[in-house]
Write a structure and sequence with these properties.
Blueprint: E1 3-6, E2 14-17, H1 31-40, H2 44-56, H3 60-68, E3 74-75, H4 76-83, H5 87-99, E4 103-108, E5 111-116, H6 120-134, H7 139-144
Length: 149
């Protein structure tokens, strides 16, 4: 039995609840499954921290910076040239990474050298890249990355 409902996003367009569209046709709660799922969730504070990490890693330039710094420290000029970005934009990305504790820097005269503050950042990026390559043919991954199939 298909039920007509209002679209939650617009509040005015009717839509049909059908299993064929990936929507439950009836309202029922499986309390045992729901409780087991709820117990498996990490705490809200952990989820907020992880969410912030994903936001930090959501720009390709910041991912490249973390990968470039995994083997050696580099100055801002070098990073800017390697990224092909203007220096102010590179500095903006470095500032975000620095405020998150991902990178740190030292100065030598008039040069600022950046390095990783924690070696786990490039490992996290490398794991995400490996997952992306493994699922690269999946159209949802391209849409999530903002590319059309």
């Amino acid at each position: 039995m298909a039920l007509a409902a209002m679209d939650g996003a617009s509040g005015s367009r009717p839509w049909t609840r059908t299993v064929a569209r990936g929507v439950c046709e009836v309202d029922s709660a499986h309390t045992d499954r729901m409780e087991a799922a709820r117990r498996a969730l990490p705490g809200e504070d952990i989820l907020r921290e992880v969410s912030g990490t994903f936001r930090l890693l959501s720009h390709p330039a910041r991912l490249r910076i973390l990968l470039l710094l995994q083997t050696r420290e580099l100055c801002v000029c070098d990073l800017s040239a390697l990224l092909g970005l203007p220096m102010p934009e590179t500095v903006r990305h470095l500032r975000r990474l620095r405020s998150a504790g991902a990178v740190t820097y030292r100065t030598e005269g008039k040069i600022a050298y950046y390095r990783l503050a924690c070696p786990s950042w490039p490992r996290l990026v490398a794991k995400a890249i490996a997952e992306g390559e493994e699922r690269g043919a999946h159209p949802g991954l391209r849409r999530a990355a903002g590319r059309r199939p």
